[in-house]
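Now for my pick.
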Amino acid sequence: MSAVTSTNGSGKAFLACAPHVPIVSMQEHKVNPEFWAAYNARVEEFKKFDPELVIIFGGDHYDGIFLKLTPQFVIGQIAEGMQDCGGYPGRLAVPRDIAAACATHLVQNDFDINVSYAMEVDHGFTNMLHHFIGELDAKPVLPIHINSIVDPQPTFRRCRQIGEEIGRFAATLNKRVAFLGTGGLSHQTDFIFPQYDTAPNENVRDYIVHGGTKGAITRQKWFDDVRTDMEKFSADLEDGSFKAPWINSKWDQEFLEILASGDLTRFDQWTNEDVLAAAGYGGGEIRQWITAAAAAQTAGAGKVLVDYYSPDTKFGIGIGIAHSF
């Protein structure tokens, strides 16, 4: 799909949704040229918009948040990127006054939000930030974590609702705000990031609960093991020896059609069970897209436009890119 420019927004809100799969940062761009043409077009548009604040919706992958305590939504007050597989290290320039005001606004409007003054963000945030802003402290960034890997996960209705409330808050700032939604579309992750009861052994179970402070797997070993798995996965995809069986093009395109329809309430009836069955655990990352789109739409962005979709890239997932402003 080719990029189309929206002209019906307020000029105060921008939206971009794109994948954060680690392989995006591992393969040469020439492997997926059409994807990168669409992706880079969004980056250039973002730069022209020149946001005064970036609100990014991402998810953790047992790199900074563990089963010892797993919140559904977290607003980072102070945040640091880590160098996990596909991620980038560095301090995020979180505007403390805005981060605190956003959390207070949500609580006052009946959202029981969590905050972190020591938030560690992995590739679920920093992959897209790196490609859009370069150094992680190049722009004021408000990171908002949405649980999309650990059962139970927030409903799609709740994601839409909290997104709309964040959009209302952003509209009060009188700033140009860019909303970034990361992740998706259909792909399977449970063979790398299991649930407690599906962990292959006690060492993995200890790690996903305690984050490397107990048991045989340290956090660095976890990073290294995931990187090794991803490097092999990427090589197999690139040389054609493996084709991901979990990509569901029909489901991906249904999701994108609803996202572009402007009526995000249509996602309210979607269930986690149905999404898992159709699109795998990775498909649950559409929560980040729905929340970002709801926020941008409420803050005044125009119609969501789908710029690119392909079930047949060398990334091993259903790949989509969307935007509005």
Observations:
- Confidence is low (pLDDT under 50) at residues 1-7.
- The first strand starts at residue 13 and ends at 18.
- The chain has one domain: 13-324.
- DSSP finds nine helices and eleven strands in the chain.
